[in-house]
Amino acid sequence: MAPIQTIEHFRVKPRWLFVKLTDAEGRSGWGEATLEGHSLAVEGALDELTTRILGMEANEIERIWQTAYRQGFYRGGAVFMSALAGIDIALWDLKARNLNVPIYELLGGKRNPEHSINNLDRKARSEQGLKCIKMNATEDLDWLDSPAALDSAIERLAKVKALGMDAALDFHGRLHRPMAKQLARALEPHRPLFIEEPVLVEHPEGIKQISDMTSIPIALGERLYSRWDIKRFLEDASVDILQLDVAHAGGISELKRIANMAEPYDVAIAPHCPLGPLALAACLQVDLSISNFGIQEMSLGIHYNTEAGDIDLGFYLKDQTILDIKDGYVHAPKGPGLGIEIDEDMVRTISKETEPWQPKGFHGPDGSIREW
Fold first, then answer.
1. Is position 172 annotated as part of the catalytic site?
2. For a Cys-Cys bond, which of 73, 93, 113, 176 suits 29, CB 3.0-4.6 Å?
């Protein structure tokens, strides 16, 4: 055992925030605290948490998590839980590396041998052997728009199905309830894998109404950050697939707890992860250890990455093939810790020139602000 000596964070392209935690014996672990569009806020939270937990025994992950979460009085939320996630993932990586085992061995051992991966492209993903994709359901819509504005969603789904692939549709919180109800009903004959965030999670009564009126599975969770946030959705049976993000929701520790919590409600876990390699590797470690794992999202080739030049999912890895897709699956990493090796020199170099990433604004024809 050795105390935590330093916690560093690195903002890197395209929009990721990496965390390196080092103990007093010079051993280190890596995590990811990416919160898209809010890097500066998370960096500040990381600095604050560092003062709270520096010097604690790095091996005592649960004690560190509870200290960070409870000792500050105010708790939860996207920024704080993302900062805590980066530290938590790094602690698990460090501990498993010290024991020379993958993290999933410390979570109960491997349960699922392989991982089916989805992404947001079409033909290219089919050629990679992927079995399904996820895509945005619509462009931005008004509170009450023409029903004809929903036709393109049906057409896109039909095109993907014609390729022999399943598709999930992400409403992305862009639809308000009058439009979301119509689209859910119109999609039913086309059998999407699931619909995600049919309305924003701050409208749980609307989610419940849509869930009760459609046979399509309801998925949500990227904008929920703790087991306390998900309680009501489990209790009212309005969600079928939980999509908590390991880099937003308190890290490996909290994602594992939420998965266990969801199982007796017969709810599957499909972790949200359009992020970097550390977040994906952390997801895989949890996926392997839970019985209610459904499907894993990944960011390979996503436009956020390609817009940044040659930076994609493997860019900061010493072995860029470790997260490659083979016949529609990413296979379980076998190395210790997260199972990937970060090119620290590359991270430090790129971080010196990386500005905070900001999301694009979306506006309606009248200039009104629309959802991202």
1. yes
2. 93
